[in-house]
Design goal:
Blueprint lengths: L5 H18 L15 E7 L12 E9 L2 E4 L5 E2 L5 E2 L5 H13 L6 H9 L2 E10 L9 E5 L1 H13 L14 E5 L12 E2 L10 H11 L13 H12 L10 H4 L3 H4 L20 H11 L2
Antiparallel strand pairs: 1-6, 1-8, 2-3, 2-6, 4-5, 6-7, 8-9
Amino acid sequence: MSNISPEYQEMLDAIKADKEKADSGGSRKYWTPPSDKEGTFPVRFLPPLKKLGEKKFYFDHKNHWIDGQSFECLNQTLVDKDGNLHEAIHCPACAMSKKFYKIADNNKNSDEFKLAGDLSGKQRYIYKVIVRGTDDETTPKFYETGITIFKNLYHILTETDYGIIVDPKNGRDYNIVKVGKGRRTKYDQSLPAANVSPIFTEADQVKDCIGKALKMSYNSLIEFVSSETMEKALRELLDPDADESPVTATTVTNSPAVQETVVASIATPAVEEEPDEVDSELDDILGEFEDM
């Protein structure tokens, strides 16, 4: 369209932003490979940014899944999205998981053992990635995985000849190979690209990417609830008809959740998950990326 007034152009820009949110399924924190597709999805892991005080190219934290909802484990010390330091405290979900393991008495086929595993804290890893093939590759995304991808990356970086794949000049893209769907999804065939390459071959693309990456704080993703809120979620999961009395292993052993084996509905979703010629200007900018 042409001859659009500034006012209407502003409106169209706002509509475009809403369309992008709709395409992504809403305001999601993380990018994920399409849930309904198998295949190979190439990304590029960004290196740690020294200006943000990052020493690793990822951020790790622990969460619990309770009735399909994610809760940060309260037994960890982290700065949250508001800049407040959360000191590790007693975590009701951790305590409940331990109690169910005790009740199960190592009977791995029991409902209690399965529920204990589902309620246990899960280690998660968050990365900043460039998603290849998108309309705007210069906009990094947060990508969260479980231990499968993390262990694969550790193996690649420390035990193979692929080199430092997060290096902005001589690193490699990473091909996420997704096999299966839903809880049966596997990512263990994922591998780095065969050839090394810079993150981008155009200087302005690298500048744009750096500027956006510097605005991405891992802590902005962290939000803690109170112990009371987590206890309420546990109570509603284990016995929806119970009163407001404290949740204990004794009172929930015979709960509908245990007897009907609802653990499948609360399990952690599967997220598990030759160099191009560049000119001297691009080399300098990529060097700036490395020196941050």
